[in-house]
Amino acid sequence: MTNSAGLSPNGIPGYEGGPLAHLAELLDEPLFWLGHLASCAHDEEVQELLLDADYDAAEDFHRRLVERPDWPTFTIPSTLGRLYIVYRNLVGDIGTDYLLQHPDRTHAHLLATDNVHSPGPGLTWPELTTIADNGPPGGSTTDPDSRLLLLLPAMRDTAIPPTATPRLAAALRTHTAAEHPERLATALLHPRDLTQ
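and the corresponding structure tokens:
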């Protein structure tokens, strides 16, 4: 394991993963966010809003990310426990795992993967924003917008409040070059409602 930030030398307790590498510097790269959020883009129109003119560059960046010999890993401390976001770079099984280690448990459990039909409870929108906005300092980032975007693919909530779209749009505006962040936020949160 390299560049520890809440990662023990033995890895994530209870998680049988590959060589984890804490790579917080990726969070400063707009192309990282395009690839990270691609799992939330469930149809062609949403993908176009997300990737827009950066499609080739984003695809190349993401390809290089998943071809790394190590597994890029991010951590977020929260009142629920420590969250881990792991880019699983297994040949034939590439994906992102979201794990949570409760303070009173010795092992992390799978919260979600970047597959919307994955096992695990996922996060609700209120849990997501609470972790983003009120998490203890430390981990990969203290920026609420980065935390929100990192955890968005783990959300499994259909009861999205009206305040969610402007909140997500602000994070997208800060960290991506999306031409229409409000429309993209609506599409990511409500994939069937692209009227805004």
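(Above: one complete record from the training split.) The first strand starts at residue 20 and ends at 22.
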